[in-house]
Amino acid sequence: MDTAEQPTILRSASGADFLATVPALAGRTISHSIAVIPFTGTRTFGLMRIDLPPADVGEDAHDRIASVALGAMSRIDWCDGVMFVVYADDTFPAAFAGHEALVSRLDERFEDAGFAVKDAFCVAADGWASWYEEEPPFDGHDLDEIARSALGVEAARACGKTPPVPHDREGALPPTDPRTLAAVTAAVDDLLTDATERNGFGMRIPAALPDPVDFVEVLLRREADDTPLRVLAQFAALSVHRAHRDVMTLQIAFGRKTGRRARAENDRWLALQRERGQTMDDVVRAEFEAAGGPTASEMGELIIGERSTRPRPARIRRAIGILGRTIAHLPADLRPDLLSMLAWLHWALGSSTAAGAHIDAALAIDPNHGMALILRTLVASGKIPQWVFAHYNDAGARLHAATASRVPAASSV
Question: Do 119 and 217 belong to one domain?
Fold first, then answer.
């Protein structure tokens, strides 16, 4: 997402060759999923991953999946064809028969919408084959055909990811160190209850929370493992204030100027609340009525992915590491706000799987957490931020112009 380079073109001579490149296209290994891969002519860039439903679900579930996939591919302006790959944990005969109806429905919906369906593969626990083969082997082709393909090695080398992380482990929190947990928890408690912190001699001294806009820029100069425990504690203490949390989230993704605008917008709402003596919900409702209906703010549109403004992936990935270390060293009651921030940042990079896991973790602690509930609605609906499609559309232009270069994620069949 953060590269502006021309993509490397990897040419597949067989189904096994192409399947060997899929982890590079996805940036991760995939299991128990269906991959929907967009094409322009014979070339592709990236893919969309959807959780694979049980084999015995009905037509309504197949239609919902097809609608989500078709909606996403329709927003990639260079996409004129697709390929499907089902990754199942069952034996090949069970997977091939069990998911044939889903693939048939996808095929039908996409062809009706004018897309060319290039192929549809089943990769099971013990074999693989195409649904479009005239006589696929009963037990599928040997998975070693995929593993032995030299194209998989080329693709991994081009993307610089060896080996890719399994999709269901992406975003996993680091292990918890008990001593660090105790130290960070005590430091957060000092900041939130007494506005103090401990100096190098263990003595409490007065301490105020830092300005969130300045804090984010200082934070992002560090790597996760090099971030002092005092800074992790400040991060956690700032996050429990909703206004600070939202400012920091947007600033991490879009930069200091966006953080300042987000803070100014929050300050305006808070001033109106104090002036009118109303709840925030009443203030927002009054503003909408005065405007003749809902009018989303720039910051609100960024939060729900309704702008094509590009986030900065390098900042996001660094913050994800720091967030993970912070959350892993906090007690459960202090985690939901940071978990919601972490979920949003993964979602902003296009990873709904990791986002969903962190949303679930936040709601398991606080079922009424506002940001987590909003994010759950976004992810459950299949919402993808507009900037992800803007990225894909730009990548398509580079794909058409590509001759050769150093990277990622392009394949040709």
Answer: no
Residue 333 lies in a domain: yes
Q: pLDDT per residue over 119-142, tens digit each?
A: 999 999 999 999 999 999 999 999
Query: Using CB atoms within 10 A of its CB, is residue 25 exposed (0-12), middle (13-18) or buried (19+)?
Result: buried
Which range marks the domain in which residue 88 is found? 10-170
Q: H or E segment at 38?
A: strand 33-40
CA distance 251 to 143: 45
Q: Domain tally for the chain?
A: 2
User: Rounded to whole angstroms, what are the CA distances from 363 to 63, 343, 348?
Assistant: 28, 12, 20
The kind and range of the H/E element at 85 are strand 81-87
pLDDT in tens, 347-374: 999 888 899 999 999 999 999 998 999 8
Asked whether residue 15 falls in the same domain as residue 60, the answer is: yes
d(CA 151, CA 132): 22
pLDDT of residue 142: 96
Distances (CA, A) of 81 to 100, 107, 124, 222, 247: 20, 11, 24, 43, 40
pTM: 0.79
